Give the backbone structure.
Amino acid sequence: MPLVQTEKLTKIYGHGETAVVALDHVSMSVETGELVAVMGPSGCGKSTLLHLLGGLDRPTEGSVLIDGKSLASLSDDALAQLRRRKIGFIFQFFNLMPILNAVDNAALPLLLDGKNSTQAKQQATEWLQKVGLGTRLNNRPDELSAGQQQRVAVARALLTNPILVLADEPTGNLDSRAADEIAALLHQVAKEWGHAVLMVTHDPRIAAYADRIIFLKDGTIVNQTNLEARNASERASAADRVRAALQ
């Protein structure tokens, strides 16, 4: 069974004539160790899909299963615990605390879960070293570049060893070089560290780092493309195919 699976997932906002169908019977899956990109025009349902998979919202119809467990069967407290311990979130604008250094920012998920401060900071330090920030542990966000801030956010997302990482436009606030570095890091998160990663992006060049791309339009899946881009040349070719598919 896939690690993440949706069946006829539907989300409708409003009622009657003013109702808006954000997602319309979407069935999809993500495997452990797979990086999947979700693309589509503005308003196609990308963020809604991410919110439903992350348990931040509940569907109107259909189901979300994570590691074989239906989110609909969980109480609000159990769902909050699942989000804290099993799902890592990465956002476009980093969402770091400006008064905290890199270690303290990365340690927040464990601290908020009531873990020992010393242990939480030790684990945060280890993850920051893994993502290439071993020399910037004590720097605050305003002392880090945008790409480095996003690396802190990646370390924070991985701190609880989640089974699923959800990334919402993780390169949207970065220059092209930093964007490529973060995309390569997310590929490493899936392939070397064994997490399932679902990434929403508008950039075909970044989507080319994925194993598979899901295209959404008007709340439905209109196409899926498998990629086998192993180097820069193959990613450039894959990005061209993605651009053609989006037209």
Summary: The longest strand covers residues 20-30. Strands lie at 4-13, 20-30, 35-39, 61-66, 69-70, 87-90, 164-168, 196-200, 212-217, 220-226. The mean pLDDT is 91.
